[in-house]
Write a structure and sequence with these properties.
Radius of gyration: 24 Å
CATH architecture of the largest domain: Beta Barrel
Helix content: under 10%
Strand content: over 45%
Largest sheet: 8 strands, antiparallel, barrel
Order of helices and strands: HEEEEEEEEEEEEE
Shape: elongated
Structural class: mainly beta
Number of strands: 13
Length: about 260
């Protein structure tokens, strides 16, 4: 496989300037939210505070919790969800029921005529927003090291079925793969080896898949996904007689990805 060190440098420079979205929330009825050191989250109304001792919370479910202040990570005021009433329980792990998130995925592309001991590498960085009923919408940039290096710019849509320690999800990504380098004639039988006057224009891609997350707490999770990636890119090639030829290159790959969510 060709070396792509310059491509990595360009890619990481682009990632470093990704924007962090900031939005203002509409006014809603507020609630007290207590984040515990063990990762649990309690929602409701604080009804009693004993300085340096304990805090008493009446939860949205009607339960009363008396908590040692040493067990509390932080306390916040947040809007009450309109769509669901959240069930609180000590020890339950909750991951991002609502709010902004980021994830980093490292994947491998299987399929095609691989002449290397390792499958091509795929990287993806996604920022998005998680709704409290399971849907998440995001956008990301990636890096695909196929015959040439490409940078996919994608929209990311996913749905998580259950908010528990082990939760399953489905996803679909779609967008455009930007070419980061021109084709090497040695990688294609129909190009003359002595002629390097070939260019890649990039092309569109789609990537549906399924997976599961292991939620560590309300902030962090690891994930594993399996998907199918179709990418179609365009090459142009000028022959010795000056004639320009367009070629369409199609990639069909099975993807195995490992992610970190934060």
């Amino acid at each position: 496989m060709k070396r792509h060190s310059k491509v990595f440098i360009i890619f990481y420079l682009l990632i470093s300037v990704l924007f962090i979205p900031k939005f203002s929330h509409a006014q809603e009825k507020m609630q007290d939210v207590i984040y515990l050191n063990n990762g649990s989250i309690l929602h409701g109304e604080i009804i009693e505070i004993k300085a340096n001792k304990s805090i008493t919370l009446k939860s949205n479910c009607g339960d009363t919790w008396v908590l040692n202040q040493s067990d509390i990570e932080r306390i916040a005021k947040e809007p009450i969800s309109r769509s669901i009433i959240l069930k609180d329980s000590i020890g339950e792990i909750s991951y991002k029921r609502k709010g902004f998130y980021s994830n980093i995925n490292i994947g491998f592309l299987f399929g095609g005529n691989m002449d290397t001991p390792f499958p091509p590498l795929s990287l993806m960085f996604v920022n998005g927003y998680q709704f409290d009923w399971g849907l998440a919408l995001g956008a990301g940039l990636g890096l695909e090291l196929l015959n040439e290096a490409y940078m996919p710019a994608v929209a990311d849509i996913r749905y998580t079925f259950k908010n528990s320690k082990l939760s399953h999800f489905i996803y679909i990504q779609g967008g455009y793969a930007i070419s980061l380098e021109n084709p090497d004639p040695y990688d294609y039988d129909y190009y003359s080896y002595y002629d390097s006057d070939s260019k890649s224009k990039g092309g569109y891609l789609i990537n549906p898949g399924i997976g599961f997350k292991i939620n560590l707490n309300n902030k962090n999770a690891f994930s594993f996904g399996v998907g199918y990636k179709y990418m179609q890119v365009e090459h142009t090639y000028q022959e010795y007689n000056g004639q320009e030829i367009d070629r369409t290159i199609k990639y069909n790959r099975i993807t195995l990805s490992f992610g970190y969510h934060f």
